UniProtKB/TrEMBL annotation:
One of its GO terms (biological process) is actin cytoskeleton organization. PANTHER family: PDZ AND LIM DOMAIN PROTEIN ZASP, PDZ AND LIM DOMAIN PROTEIN ZASP-RELATED. SUPFAM superfamilies: Glucocorticoid receptor-like (DNA-binding domain) (SSF57716). It is found in: Cell junction; Cytoplasm. This is LIM zinc-binding domain-containing protein. One of its GO terms (molecular function) is metal ion binding. GO terms for cellular component: adherens junction; filamentous actin; stress fiber; Z disc. The lineage of its organism: Eukaryota, Metazoa, Ecdysozoa, Nematoda, Chromadorea. Pfam families: LIM. Its main location: other.
């Protein structure tokens, strides 16, 4: 094909290089078409497609050969080449900014999926003071009740002179800005003094309770120390039963202390109807004739060998 033998000027080479940079994914068919347009045809032929010069005749031959290439070899660049061949008919133009804008529109940022999972309740009893610089409002020290003209400590919404923000336990005086504090009844203590002198003691192990505290039987307990007196399992949030000053779970209390029905051997629980007869206790529906099993509650009965009988079978 004679059109490939013609030499091109430098600006035309630069134009072709720019096009290939903007459109790096052109297929081989489209690259040949661009060579023909840029290197073979004068500028006037591109502007005026009706031109019939020898270069354009060669270009027509190339286009005919390219049209014979099967469609399965057509790539993304072929679509752009077709658009370029119809510039004079549709008045469309593609610039570098146009391609960049379309590329940006296809870029999607994916958000993270919150991981999900369970939460545990934690009791936070230790606090920290924060050193602040003086502002437009002059704070008042909670200890000396004087205005603070310099840096001050802010904790639980109140202000202190740095030298006055100390452990409230007498004889300690440790600076709480260095170690943090535990608040009890409005007073702030260092953790060591709180555990040694202020924290309540467990009624079972006698150790200080510095976290969760359980109040029961007018005493304080670690939750793991308040257990059934028989099976020694912690009660948690379940009910307990008192007997002789000791706490029992429901199952053990029924087994150890409730009155049992002599007929069915099950305990007679609170609220159950029961009958006391022949020195024993019966559920109301268990107090029946030994022979015919008719219910004897509220009826006359006869005792034979320690067993109740109705009149008919006495």
């Amino acid at each position: 094909m004679s059109c490939f033998k013609q030499s091109a000027l430098l600006p035309e080479y630069l134009l072709l290089s720019w096009v290939l940079t903007v459109l790096p994914n052109l297929s081989s068919r489209s690259v040949v078409l661009l060579y023909c347009v840029v290197l073979c045809c004068p500028v006037s032929c591109v502007v005026y497609p009706s031109c019939k010069c020898s270069s354009c005749s060669s270009l027509s031959e190339v286009l005919e050969e390219l049209e014979a290439i099967p469609a399965r070899y057509r790539g993304p660049g072929d679509f752009i080449a077709e658009q370029l061949s119809h510039i004079d008919q549709q008045g469309q133009s593609f610039t570098r900014s146009t391609f960049e804008q379309r590329t940006e529109q296809r870029t999607v940022s994916g958000g993270g999926t919150p991981i999900g999972g369970h939460s545990a309740k934690q009791v936070e009893i230790k606090g920290h003071g924060m050193l602040n610089n003086p502002g437009s409002r002059v704070p008042i020290c909670e200890a000396c009740k004087q205005q603070i003209r310099g840096a001050y400590v802010l904790a639980t919404g109140l202000a202190w002179c740095p030298e006055h923000f100390v452990c409230a336990y007498r004889g300690c005086g440790r600076r709480l800005l260095e170690c943090g504090f535990v608040e009890e009844n409005g007073l702030k203590y260092c953790e060591g003094c709180f555990e040694a002198h202020i924290a309540p003691r467990c009624a079972k192990c006698s150790k200080p309770i510095i976290s969760d505290c359980l109040n029961a039987m007018q005493k304080k307990w670690h939750p793991t120390c308040f257990t059934c007196a028989h099976c020694h399992k912690p009660f948690g949030n379940t009910a307990f039963y008192l007997e002789n000053g000791l706490a029992y779970c429901e199952q053990d209390w029924n087994q150890l202390f409730t009155t049992k029905c002599v007929a069915c051997k099950y305990p007679i629980e609170a609220g159950d109807r029961w009958v006391e007869a022949l020195g024993n206790a019966f559920h109301s529906n268990c107090f029946n004739c030994t022979r015919c099993h008719s219910n004897l509650e509220g009826e006359s009965f006869f005792a034979k060998n320690g067993q109740p009988y109705c009149k008919m079978h006495a």
